[in-house]
Design brief:
The structure is a single chain. This protein is mainly α and about 375 residues long. Helix content is about 65%, strand content about 0%. Helix 9 packs across helix 10, helix 9 packs across helix 12 and helix 12 runs antiparallel to helix 13. The longest helix has about 30 residues. It is globular, with a radius of gyration of 21 Å.
């Protein structure tokens, strides 16, 4: 699911010490540039170090970030409990059976396939930008990014890891940064489209009051915002003015150049969008599998097509930890009008979160090995 910043999704070997990374953040490393500018012009190495050494020497200013976000998630789950007086936490746990295990296993495999599809989308972006790489290199790197984003106690994220290690393989940190930004943006473009499609093919879903209005609002706001970002990045007077700059501005310019190349490669761009569409559909299918395992597979795929993209969008808000609490609240809002009990709606969010953690663990070896060995794209 989408991530720049704090994974900048947003989703990160030889790096400076954690102390140096902290100094770069506030600009004290040189005293000549703002902290953010120095981070960017230094190929984000100071920021990367906080990911690569997560848990060893945490920055003082971020020491309380994780506890606060965990507290926010617990608070939101508590609010859900108080909003539904008859809510029974005992009903959240699935009734285990052979069928449940098979459904959840299938959902996990679908999530893993989705990560591979995301790596394919990233490869297509890189090809359109004339900096090709192989899936043999990108797939483990994408899994490593997922591990950082979803498992490690870091507030930075896996996209930073991907930028770092890709730039070490191709020597172009600005273009690597742009490829990750564009991979994320093109993936998000299809989410509102899926919502609109689900509402069109299932008319009763258009009459669910607050749920329908929120899904449409989230979808339209996201679509307009992404189109505006891409237009600004493509504009020669806005994004283009940074194309030949140095320091942090060259990263903005690289996004401009990347958008320009996508515009001149329509077939590659179409392939990128289609890969993003297949990926998001895979997530919807995995959610339907979890729903079937929890006993309400009767919900149907069209309801998830209409509402799950909105859940995926709102869960990236920087509230709580990994969307915990926000995601479950969104499911309650969207699914209870369809007759799904609040307990099962919360269970759907929690199980999807748990499966995502399990699948992300596959990236642990790639993260550990990649941090010690300089990787090169073949």
């Amino acid at each position: 699911m989408p991530e720049l910043p704090p994974s900048a999704e947003h989703t990160s070997d030889t790096a400076p010490s954690a102390h140096h990374g902290a100094a770069l953040l506030d600009g004290s490393a040189t005293g000549t540039e703002p902290g953010l500018a120095h981070l960017a012009s230094d190929s984000i190495t100071g920021l990367i170090d906080a990911v690569e050494t997560a848990g060893h020497r945490p920055e003082r200013r971020h020491r309380w970030a994780l506890p606060l976000r965990l507290g926010a998630s617990a608070l939101m789950l508590g609010i859900l409990y108080t909003r539904f007086p008859d809510f029974e936490w005992s009903e959240v746990a699935p009734e285990w059976s052979t069928a449940t295990i098979f459904w959840l296993l299938g959902a996990a495999l679908m999530m893993a396939a989705g990560i591979v599809l995301s790596a394919i989308r990233w490869q297509q972006v890189l090809r359109a930008m004339d900096i090709p790489s192989t899936l043999r290199f990108l797939v483990p790197l994408y899994f490593a990014g997922q591990f950082v984003s979803n498992v490690l106690p870091t507030t930075i994220g896996g996209d930073v890891l991907r930028v770092s290690r890709l730039s070490r393989s191709n020597g172009d940190s600005a273009a690597s940064f742009a490829s990750v930004v564009l991979e994320r943006l093109t993936g998000w473009l299809v989410l509102p489209v899926i919502t609109f499609f689900g509402l069109v093919i299932n008319p009763p879903l258009r009459n669910l009051g607050q749920a329908t209005v929120l899904a449409l609002t989230v979808g339209m706001a996201t679509l307009f915002a992404l189109i505006a970002i891409l237009l600004i990045a493509d504009n020669a007077r806005l994004g283009g003015r940074f194309a030949q700059k140095e320091g942090w501005r060259r990263f903005v310019g690289a996004v401009h150049l990347g958008v320009s190349k996508l515009r001149t490669h329509p077939w590659e761009t179409l392939g990128i969008i289609l890969a993003g569409l297949v990926y998001q559909l895979a997530l919807c299918v995995s959610a339907l599998m979890v729903a079937a395992g929890l006993g309400f597979g009767w919900l149907g795929i069209t309801a998830l097509l209409a509402f799950y993209p909105a859940v995926l969008i709102v869960q990236v808000l920087p509230i709580g930890i990994a969307g915990l609490g926000v995601r479950e609240g969104a499911f309650v809002l969207f699914l209870t009008p369809l007759g799904v009990p609040a307990e099962q709606a919360v269970a759907l969010g929690l199980v999807l979160y748990g499966l995502n953690l399990v699948v992300s663990l596959v990236g642990a070896p790639a993260f550990a090995v990649g941090g010690r060995v300089r990787q090169t794209a073949q």
